[in-house]
Amino acid sequence: MGSPFDINGGACVAMVGKDCVAIACDLRLGMQALTISNNFPKVFNYAPSTYLGLTGLATDVNTVSDLLRYKVNMYRLREERNIAPQTLANLVSSSLYEKRFGPFFVSPVLAGINETTGKPFICGFDSIGCIDFAKDFIVSGTASEQLFGTCEGLWEPDMEPEDLFETISQALLAAVDRDALSGWGAQVWIIEKDKVTQRLLKGRQD
Amino acid sequence: MTSLLGHPAGGEGIGYSFSQPTAAPVKQHGFYPYTDNGGSTLGITGSDFAILAGDTRSTSGYNINSRMVPKVFKIGGDDETGEGAHIVLSVVGFAADGNALKERLDAVVKMYKYQHGKPMSVSACAQRLSTILYQKRFFPYYVTAILSGLDEEGKGALYSYDPVGSYEREQCRAAGAAASLIMPFLDNQVNFKNQYIPGSGEGHALEQKKAEPLPQATVEQLVRDAFTSAVERHIEVGDHLQMMIITRDGIQEVFHPLKKD
Amino acid sequence: MDHFPGTWGRPRNDVYGAYDPTYLQTTGPKTHTSSPAVTGTSVIGVKFNGGVVLATDNLASYGSLARFTDVKRLRVFGDNAVVGFGGDVSDMQYIDRLLESIDIRENYSTHGNMLNAKNLHTYLAKVFYKRRSEFNPLWNHVLVAGFDVDGKPFLSSADLLGTTFSAPHLATGFGAHLAVPILRRRFPEEMPIEEITREEAVSALKDCLKVLFYRDARSIDKYSIAVITKEGIDLKEDEQIEGQSWAFAERIRGYGRQTN
């Protein structure tokens, strides 16, 4: 059997624009080459303008997303405020490192806008919580190589929300079409200061 | 007593601390006839031209062998410089096999010209290259080849291969270490995959943007963008970009610097 | 008491295991080199404004044993071409005989033009590639130095797989890790070779050999160095690495005289 990261397939990407961020994922869930579902979103919401994408082993995607929902809910009850993206990043990191020698097989991607500073924030993680702070984009999943190529080619600094949507969508769709384990439609979130737009993309169904 | 032949009887051996390792299994070291020299190549065709490009870095493992080892070759030229050639071949993978393949094909195309008194067509050369690769089906040339030139109508022609000779004519193709990074970018920017014409229909009934041959300047820029992107994210790609631009006036070879880190 | 004189003076079977006679077998399937036996370590080379310098040390190792300490690993071919050999020494001697026979044949031929270093490199690369394709490799990594057809300095590498590449400075084996960074710092690749003098090139190689002697356990401080110019080859085969500094050893436990 192959790597646990490649059994179910899936792709996720986050990008920074001008006062906005975007996060997108494909919708496939598979078992090796067999597609089980074409409605398996991998991006989860943890605060009004903070989203987390999880690719990798689907069971761990569910476990980690639920675990973080629990932890973020506890945070909100205790602090009586929403969690900031930077705080969530550290929470994700420490939660993953807790399982250093028996990790969750996930590669998280975080995107959000800090409510107090108004600054966009994205970052990525490896499965044991090493944070990758990036100024441009973060990719993960079985199509990560393809995503690196498309994002590096299409992304440019200071894009407006509409341009950012088009760029992240084209980058994701082009990438997953060259990956047998990802695709079957996509979901995109464009996060602005006080507004989040969610869009469902039709992709190739093969 | 030490026996003359064979091992001592079990349990009778003396207790030297270093007498243990003799039980270690005999290790076989095999000879592996291949290596990967990294790098990437890319070809795009237009209505009256074709461009084949590759980086010039040669690697073995994490070492850079040299920053100037071209992967794109003129085939069937009149002299060592390739002057007079009208077909271009790029090879990426195991460089020694790549060179051997290049020289085989070069000889074949030259012999064709001497025997038939006319240059070999690109389609004929493409078929021949497939045969050469398949002849070594059970000890393959470990390379991904791309062959390019102009077809009988003067249109850009490009053929891509796998190591054992499967081939196909295409509009564009990336090969080598960064193929997985470059190819989806090309799908999107050359064949306009996933691009729709705004206002051409309601919802999912939108009409797809048709792929049409691009102008030479656009293609050159796309090739350079594809490589600068690949260099950024792949350690085996870099140093220089070598581009062969094939038009009816001949083959123009240009080099551009890439990042050397 | 062991009453069998045939076993006297041999490693005891009960200690070292039975003697493995397989390598002496004359029957059975044809066997090929699957690993090198007696080996030479790095070869290093640099181009300069009038030619090329090539250097190796004079050691041939048998595994970790410094077996032969006076082996010449730079071989001259013709009037201005030198081959530096790394890897299996017996294969080096085979190739040397091969090159000698070519040299003699070429000298007796009527055309009068001699093979230059570039031709020699092409030939060697093809010999290596042919042998690797027969699964019977010549276990070497060589540098070829001299001049090309246009009389420009030439330096190129070929290895047991037939892989070839050329650069203003090259090194094989350990030298690729230790010598190349030193050479790249002294002579940046964008620096034209017209700006590199013979003296600079020679002193750079000497420094590289010293670093290799310090850190490559399969090296020795006796070396050969060849300077190839239009005037001919200046080959010195009995040199000694000079200016070694072992002052640091005094402070390292287990290295100098300190025992605890």
TrEMBL record, chain A:
<dbReference type="InterPro" id="IPR023333">
    <property type="entry name" value="Proteasome_suB-type"/>
</dbReference>
<dbReference type="GO" id="GO:0005737">
    <property type="term" value="C:cytoplasm"/>
</dbReference>
<comment type="subunit">
    <text>The 26S proteasome consists of a 20S proteasome core and two 19S regulatory subunits. The 20S proteasome core is composed of 28 subunits that are arranged in four stacked rings, resulting in a barrel-shaped structure. The two end rings are each formed by seven alpha subunits, and the two central rings are each formed by seven beta subunits. The catalytic chamber with the active sites is on the inside of the barrel.</text>
</comment>
<dbReference type="InterPro" id="IPR029055">
    <property type="entry name" value="Ntn_hydrolases_N"/>
</dbReference>
<dbReference type="GO" id="GO:0043161">
    <property type="term" value="P:proteasome-mediated ubiquitin-dependent protein catabolic process"/>
</dbReference>
<keyword id="KW-0647">Proteasome</keyword>
<dbReference type="Pfam" id="PF00227">
    <property type="entry name" value="Proteasome"/>
</dbReference>
<dbReference type="InterPro" id="IPR016050">
    <property type="entry name" value="Proteasome_bsu_CS"/>
</dbReference>
<protein>
    <recommendedName>
        <fullName>Proteasome subunit beta</fullName>
    </recommendedName>
</protein>
<comment type="similarity">
    <text>Belongs to the peptidase T1B family.</text>
</comment>
<dbReference type="InterPro" id="IPR001353">
    <property type="entry name" value="Proteasome_sua/b"/>
</dbReference>
<dbReference type="GO" id="GO:0019774">
    <property type="term" value="C:proteasome core complex, beta-subunit complex"/>
</dbReference>
<comment type="function">
    <text>Component of the proteasome, a multicatalytic proteinase complex which is characterized by its ability to cleave peptides with Arg, Phe, Tyr, Leu, and Glu adjacent to the leaving group at neutral or slightly basic pH. The proteasome has an ATP-dependent proteolytic activity.</text>
</comment>
<dbReference type="InterPro" id="IPR033811">
    <property type="entry name" value="Proteasome_beta_3"/>
</dbReference>
<comment type="subunit">
    <text>Component of the proteasome complex.</text>
</comment>
TrEMBL record, chain B:
<protein>
    <recommendedName>
        <fullName>Proteasome subunit beta type-6</fullName>
    </recommendedName>
</protein>
<dbReference type="InterPro" id="IPR001353">
    <property type="entry name" value="Proteasome_sua/b"/>
</dbReference>
<dbReference type="GO" id="GO:0051603">
    <property type="term" value="P:proteolysis involved in protein catabolic process"/>
</dbReference>
<dbReference type="GO" id="GO:0005737">
    <property type="term" value="C:cytoplasm"/>
</dbReference>
<dbReference type="GO" id="GO:0005839">
    <property type="term" value="C:proteasome core complex"/>
</dbReference>
<dbReference type="GO" id="GO:0005634">
    <property type="term" value="C:nucleus"/>
</dbReference>
<keyword id="KW-0539">Nucleus</keyword>
<dbReference type="InterPro" id="IPR023333">
    <property type="entry name" value="Proteasome_suB-type"/>
</dbReference>
<dbReference type="InterPro" id="IPR029055">
    <property type="entry name" value="Ntn_hydrolases_N"/>
</dbReference>
<dbReference type="Pfam" id="PF00227">
    <property type="entry name" value="Proteasome"/>
</dbReference>
<keyword id="KW-0647">Proteasome</keyword>
<keyword id="KW-0963">Cytoplasm</keyword>
From TrEMBL, chain C:
<dbReference type="InterPro" id="IPR016295">
    <property type="entry name" value="Proteasome_beta4"/>
</dbReference>
<dbReference type="InterPro" id="IPR029055">
    <property type="entry name" value="Ntn_hydrolases_N"/>
</dbReference>
<dbReference type="GO" id="GO:0019774">
    <property type="term" value="C:proteasome core complex, beta-subunit complex"/>
</dbReference>
<dbReference type="InterPro" id="IPR016050">
    <property type="entry name" value="Proteasome_bsu_CS"/>
</dbReference>
<dbReference type="Pfam" id="PF00227">
    <property type="entry name" value="Proteasome"/>
</dbReference>
<comment type="similarity">
    <text>Belongs to the peptidase T1B family.</text>
</comment>
<dbReference type="InterPro" id="IPR023333">
    <property type="entry name" value="Proteasome_suB-type"/>
</dbReference>
<keyword id="KW-0963">Cytoplasm</keyword>
<dbReference type="GO" id="GO:0051603">
    <property type="term" value="P:proteolysis involved in protein catabolic process"/>
</dbReference>
<dbReference type="GO" id="GO:0005634">
    <property type="term" value="C:nucleus"/>
</dbReference>
<protein>
    <recommendedName>
        <fullName>Proteasome subunit beta</fullName>
    </recommendedName>
</protein>
<keyword id="KW-0647">Proteasome</keyword>
<dbReference type="InterPro" id="IPR001353">
    <property type="entry name" value="Proteasome_sua/b"/>
</dbReference>
<dbReference type="GO" id="GO:0005737">
    <property type="term" value="C:cytoplasm"/>
</dbReference>
<keyword id="KW-0539">Nucleus</keyword>
